[in-house]
Amino acid sequence: MPRSRSNARQNHLKLARQIIEFILERDLSKGDHLPESVLSEACGVSRTPIRSALKLLEQKDIVQRREEGGFFLNLAPEALSPDISSDLDDMEGSLAARILSDRAERRLSDVQSVSALVRRYGAPRSSVLNSLKILSSDGVVVQLPGRAWAFQPMLDSPNAIEESLAFRLTLEPQAILTPGFQVDSQKIGLMRQQTEDFLQRPDGKLSSSAFLRLDCAFHSFIAESSGNRFARGVLLAHQRLRLSTQKDHTIADFRLRQSLNEHLGILDSLERMQLQLAADQMVLHLRRSQIRRPQTVNRGILPLARGGPL
Amino acid sequence: MTKPIIALFPEASFGSALNCVGIAQELQRNGAVPVFLCHSGFNGVFAEYGFKEYQLPASAASRPQTEDTWQTFVTAHVAHFNQDPMAQLNSYVAPTWDAIVDTAIRAEEGLESLLKRIKPAGIVLDNVIMFPAIANAGVPWIRVVSCTETEIPDANVPPYLSGLAADDPARPAFEARYLEVTAPAHHRFNEFRGQRGLAPLPAGQFLEPSPHLNLLLAPTAIRHERAAPLPEDRFVFLEGCVREEAQFDPPPLPVNEGPIVYMSFGSLGAIDTDLFARMITVFAAIPARFFVNVGGFLESYSQVPDNVYLGSWFPQPSIVSQADLFIHHGGNNSYCEALYFGVPSLIMPYCWDGHDNGLRVKQTGTGDFLQRNDWTAAQLSNVISALLGDTEMLGHLKKISEQMKATPGTVVAAQSIFQAIAGS
Q1: B92 close to A290: Cβ distance less than 8 angstroms
Q2: Which of A57, B139, B184, B423 has the least C-beta neighbours within 10 A?
Q3: Side-chain half-sphere of B268: how many Cα atoms within 13 Å?
Q4: Nearest CB to B96: which of A204, A209, A299?
Q5: pTM of this prediction?
Q6: Could you tell me how many helices (H) and strands (E) chain B has, helices first?
Q7: Residue A299: pLDDT above 80?
């Protein structure tokens, strides 16, 4: 099943990137032990995928497996940089990620043929097809009658992000209020821990991509807890789309912290099963996120506004 | 002891707004409570940095503009941006002053009641026009000149908005024309001032120096030697005014090699998407990575080259600090940020004081100037390559940067504001 293998590889790559961020955040030194249990807790997954991600890092000599057991950091911290993530992509030939990134950066037009992509990336036809199928499973592309593929809407511009927030504002609070909403208390604990860890970082070290991952994980958790299967499905798919395509997410440190504290407030209410309060907090949270900078300004003429109601 | 509330009132432009954010961050660090008075439509800009905002009460005439209004503005003015400063006096500067006077008149009543409610210990005004409610508030007010220092006239300083040298033979004609075209707005403004109990201002002037404190965003490296030096007790020059901002990590591009060039013409400059598209075509053939701020017009672009990245917003101090060249419109905040980080500027001005900085950047050896629309692909490419390879200029800029960082403008501004308030 090439498609399943590719999806698993994507997940391991994502985890490998998270492990690199964990190493950088914790200021670990060369030779430090990387216990699987700690990484498993930090990333919110079981130890099996963590082990696979560590093996990927081992292939890049970033970590080393020792006979005394476990993986150890094999590089000085200064040699570790976020660029390593792109090296990982290259290593795995992550064509789907490159196609997605190029589309989000407006390098690829709405409709693409497999041949055009083969030419652009110098990749075998089978790899391109496989990548398109991966993207198709996330709802990023659909196959048109014939051989062409069409990209679907992404979160690649301020207007798209604005529409996404309006859509979520309609649905997310309702997802909390529909009968059958149930939260996993263990997951709440994990979510809170990850959020609090992130908030410990000093200003200027709050990575916007790490924030996006945390934010999508939180909102996916809300979706997963919904008792309405359709709300659950639609919101989960949307969060996957956010995670893979959202651009333009550099947020000032203050708002970023404020946003995460709003998450913690919602988690508190959910733990107490005060669902109406949690839904109201979600409205406030999403409305605050809707406030955006004015689009265009000039002396003597008031700004062209963007965003939702203020 | 109660913390002093300091109200900052920047004009509705990103340059002065973000300049004031830098000052407010320092005021806050030193125990004040900075709050922002903001025009409708600017909500959220300051809250995002953690500051309380008070929006000027909106009347029907002062709500954020619609797409249609702006489209009318764009249609009317984009062509004017290609004119020289003298021609712009009639087509752009005069109607803009008219609109600015309207803004001041409309804001007055709401501003007065807002200030009575907030009861600030001092008011920081970063604007080009006086709002009488501020002078009448009964607390010290501080004027911030975040445009070029040409805003404060002097015989040795070039005429405001002219792009001319101080001794240019065309100076008298420009100044005469400036006074002529601004006369109707000026007359109307002086009448308004009279109604609010303020003395009239001399022709061409819309904002008087503060009797308490005036802060000028004019680093030593580009400052003019004045015929009549400004009194040091009331006029303080700032070596840049750079805010603390989120970190920007440049994403890897499909062609991820070469120096980093950042381009931003401000939110207004971004409306000229045809010009941007022409420039991006040229960038595609230059061995460098280009990060381009296209403002609210991201959806106007497609087929972006592999060495170019478009964004609708960049945390500018962060990306400028990583850049090897900054292409901008000569906005004073952008120019000063480039100097602060020791980055050469390619200035392509389209209006207002961008023309003045366009000249100054060449006079001071801190970058180069290019007419915004009148160039060939080879000329644009050559000037970028020359700036990227000019090691002598880079050495000069490094020294400027060190000097500016040694006395950060935000710190000096905050200290001076505290003194002005304490001394009142």
Answers
A1: no
A2: B423
A3: 26
A4: A299
A5: 0.84
A6: 14, 13
A7: no
Which tops the pLDDT comparison, A70 or A90?
Answer: A70
CA separation for the pair A174, A257 (Å, rounded): 25
pLDDT of residue B360: 97
SS3 A61: coil
Placement of tokens 């996120």 in the chain: A289
Average pLDDT over every residue of A25-39: 85
Residues 96-155 of B with CB under 8 A from A: 96-100, 102-103, 128
| CA B388 vs CA A80, A244, B251, B331, B345: distances in Å | 28, 35, 21, 21, 10
Residue identified by tokens 């989000």 is: A104
> Are B158 and B164 spatial neighbours (Cβ–Cβ below 8 Å)?
yes
* B246 and chain A in contact, CB less than 8 A: yes
Q: Which of B64, B97, B312 sits opposite A305 (nearest CB)?
A: B64
Of residues A276 and A294, more confidence is placed in A276
Q: Which residue is it, tokens 């009460």?
A: B57
Q: What element of type H or E holds A245?
A: helix A229-245
- For B391, residues 6+ apart whose C-beta sits below 8 A from its C-beta are none
* Distance separating alpha carbons of residues B162 and B174, to the nearest angstrom: 7
Tell me the residues of chain B between 78 and 107 that have a Cβ less than 8 Å away from chain A. 95-100, 102-103
Q: Which segments of chain B have a pLDDT < 70?
A: 1, 58-71, 73-74, 424
B8 and B37 in contact (C-beta within 8 Å)?
yes
CB contact under 8 A, B296 and A158: yes
Q: What local confidence, expressed as pLDDT, does residue A309 receive?
A: 31
- Residues 6 or more apart from A19 whose CB is under 8 A from it? A34, A39, A43, A50, A53, A54, A57
Residues of A in contact with B311 (CB under 8 A): 247-248
Q: Cα(A165)–Cα(B140) distance, rounded to whole angstroms?
A: 43
- B186 phi and psi angles, rounded to 5 deg: -65, -40
Contacts of B305 in chain A (CB under 8 A): 107
Upper half-sphere CA count for residue A133 (Cβ side, 13 Å): 13
Q: Which residue has the higher pLDDT, A150 or A52?
A: A150
- Asked if residues A68 and A30 have their Cβ atoms less than 8 Å apart, the reply is no
What pLDDT was estimated at residue B13? 85
Four-CA torsion B117, B122, B125, B126, nearest 10 degrees: -120
Worst-scoring range by mean pLDDT, A103-107, A208-212, B288-292, B332-336? A208-212
Can you tell me the distance from the alpha carbon of A206 to that of A257, in angstroms, rounded to the nearest whole number? 9
Q: Please report the residues numbered 115 through 174 in chain A whose beta carbons come closer than 8 angstroms to any beta carbon of chain B.
A: 156-159
Touching check for B244 and chain A: CB below 8 Å?
Answer: yes
Residue A44 contacts residue A4 (beta carbons within 8 Å): no
The pair of structure tokens assigned to A197 is 């860890």
**Looking at residue B66, what is its pLDDT?**
58
Whole-number Å distance between alpha carbons of A109 and A304: 28
The residues with which B47 forms a beta bridge, in sequence order, are none
Is the Cβ pair B304, A105 closer than 8 Å? Answer: yes
How does the average pLDDT of chain A come out, rounded?
A: 84
**A208 and B CB contact within 8 Å:** yes
A54, A56, A62, A66: CA torsion to nearest 10: 50
DSSP string, B81-150: GGS-HHHHIIIIIHHHHHHHHHHHHHHHHHHHHHHHHH--SEEEEESSS--HHHHTSSS-EEEEE-S-GG
Contacts of B247 in chain A (CB under 8 A): 204-208
- Euclidean distance between CA atoms B383 and B92, whole angstroms: 28
